[in-house]
């Protein structure tokens, strides 16, 4: 009985669980940490905002100076942006710009639009006055620490550092960030029939697309990829490649991913090379990407993906990518949405089918190519993966399906 | 009357329309083109698959050899993967693995599971036979060119190069790709109150988070960012910075983005510096991010964002990012979905409000922080932007809203 998609996903999560503990930290300038994962809890070294400031362009006032009917106040010196504000004397209103410090004594801001006149007086004019409506204490004031208080947790270890997280660190005055060293993965394509792009393509051969497809996917997911090129169908050759990266030296990787050689054919090089290792080869109830290998090779976590390009990509998206998110905190999960089918679909009973589709702006999704796992041109047109659960064999046009945006 | 969000978006698209024509091409190795945009139409230099091959592990047969009731056929030499297959003689069935070339004369594949016996015979055994059910011509054969035919359009100019697109290029045997040179943007933060992270924070000052927030966002969107640091509130200083990047030399940029100095305060440095330029400063019916500047500075497209960090980010996400997608083909658009509010919301009439939220796995979205545009810690917790259209002033818990995933 094939393993369920959920059970295999869980097995991949468990396989990777020990990886982060082996990884050190790196200190990087903020912008170099974009897309990487915070290694430590980060506490705010100062409060944000660092001082009470105005939310509007207007007049800083003492609220008690203005009765219900409004009041005419004398105009004080404007509060300069970026400097300590002088205290506000009773009976005065100080012109203040958005973000400028609230003067001592002031406890509210009246927006310029509500003032009469509703423009700021020329600073050269002496003894200017302004008529203002009343304002409750605190009106249009951003209190010190109202976004985050000094010493409180700003970002938790494991946070994925995007623009907003890096922007917060800058607002806190920080210039560097401690991130986790990326996970290193060895990627090996296998098969006598596979040749490197740019080489001669003789009869019966195909170019290796899996290496590029997976390396690009892994890079986007924050992994450091070690490419070992193409290994042919001799188990000894594959073993030699793997063993260069499983010793104790600098070439050691955290994870091995192979493509091909895991199915039921007569020449399954990955299966053969793993014969003495604690590696399981098993069918997962999924199409494409059914045959999967999982275990450890000389103690290094190992995943064996099938050989077709679409199967590879779907193995990555269904198992490795979500497990990385769960265990390492990066990459961000694929956005999940529901879309209406623009065409009917059939799916084999008992298998979770993952089709490639294009979600249109009207909320429908159409298929790109058929179910075939070799359709790499169709894959390149798709913007999403379309899920048909194992217990569903037929869907009509207009039926809703779950879609993962690529 | 403020300009609508849609009208301002359209104005930004028009502002950027001339930019791509000024940009040259770059030839890069495939993986370095990840996230960049294809500069030219790409036609397939070969067909995919390059030859008819088997979709299954099984036996290649001449379909005419097997009558309705099945037949016993002699087992031919196995088809070696990665080599030209010898022609199949009548009355024979050739063991064949997934992806191997269909031998001349064969026109169908019977999967190994349907064979009796259902395992491949030892190649050392002479005169082996196998009993096979009938198969219609074409069964389990992937025809040459069924994914894409030689000479047809594989990828159109303007395609964003992700893993699948690069994987397709590798499958076509290509090792380099012509991409568009990235658009260069000059990013200037303004304000007397703003200091660089890492400097001393004296009274009334704040650290510049806009620079980091926007540079990170722009890098993720595929722009090349030129940082000009912080310009204070003297228009002459800002003009000097801008003019270093608008000449005809190598420092020239394709776009200028400033933050701050576009509102109704008394010291609006960007407004003052643009006084002689064809630049409009106008309110957009949006909160936050209402005050916007748009035009050209010495002929270079210019956008003036407001000064609060959340306003900056929302200006980028609402106007610049979608316009880049439309005009340059990159970045990929934000996934749009609908989510149910986990709390009631109010919104000012006539303004499109953009709140920050976290979409949960159960399809609900909760707000991160209030409406205030200074809440950069709240922004760093959010995974999405929540849209409340201008004609909506109240929403109840459970109401559906449009959400853009960040």
UniProtKB/TrEMBL annotation, chains A, B:
<dbReference type="Pfam" id="PF00994">
    <property type="entry name" value="MoCF_biosynth"/>
</dbReference>
<dbReference type="InterPro" id="IPR005110">
    <property type="entry name" value="MoeA_linker/N"/>
</dbReference>
<dbReference type="Pfam" id="PF03453">
    <property type="entry name" value="MoeA_N"/>
</dbReference>
<dbReference type="GO" id="GO:0006777">
    <property type="term" value="P:Mo-molybdopterin cofactor biosynthetic process"/>
</dbReference>
<dbReference type="InterPro" id="IPR038987">
    <property type="entry name" value="MoeA-like"/>
</dbReference>
<feature type="domain" description="MoaB/Mog">
    <location>
        <begin position="186"/>
        <end position="326"/>
    </location>
</feature>
<keyword id="KW-0460">Magnesium</keyword>
<keyword id="KW-0500">Molybdenum</keyword>
<dbReference type="InterPro" id="IPR036688">
    <property type="entry name" value="MoeA_C_domain_IV_sf"/>
</dbReference>
<dbReference type="GO" id="GO:0046872">
    <property type="term" value="F:metal ion binding"/>
</dbReference>
<comment type="similarity">
    <text>Belongs to the MoeA family.</text>
</comment>
<dbReference type="InterPro" id="IPR005111">
    <property type="entry name" value="MoeA_C_domain_IV"/>
</dbReference>
<comment type="function">
    <text>Catalyzes the insertion of molybdate into adenylated molybdopterin with the concomitant release of AMP.</text>
</comment>
<dbReference type="InterPro" id="IPR036135">
    <property type="entry name" value="MoeA_linker/N_sf"/>
</dbReference>
<protein>
    <recommendedName>
        <fullName>Molybdopterin molybdenumtransferase</fullName>
        <ecNumber>2.10.1.1</ecNumber>
    </recommendedName>
</protein>
<dbReference type="InterPro" id="IPR036425">
    <property type="entry name" value="MoaB/Mog-like_dom_sf"/>
</dbReference>
<dbReference type="GO" id="GO:0061599">
    <property type="term" value="F:molybdopterin molybdotransferase activity"/>
</dbReference>
<keyword id="KW-0479">Metal-binding</keyword>
<dbReference type="GO" id="GO:0005829">
    <property type="term" value="C:cytosol"/>
</dbReference>
<keyword id="KW-0501">Molybdenum cofactor biosynthesis</keyword>
<dbReference type="Pfam" id="PF03454">
    <property type="entry name" value="MoeA_C"/>
</dbReference>
<dbReference type="InterPro" id="IPR001453">
    <property type="entry name" value="MoaB/Mog_dom"/>
</dbReference>
<keyword id="KW-0808">Transferase</keyword>
<comment type="pathway">
    <text>Cofactor biosynthesis; molybdopterin biosynthesis.</text>
</comment>
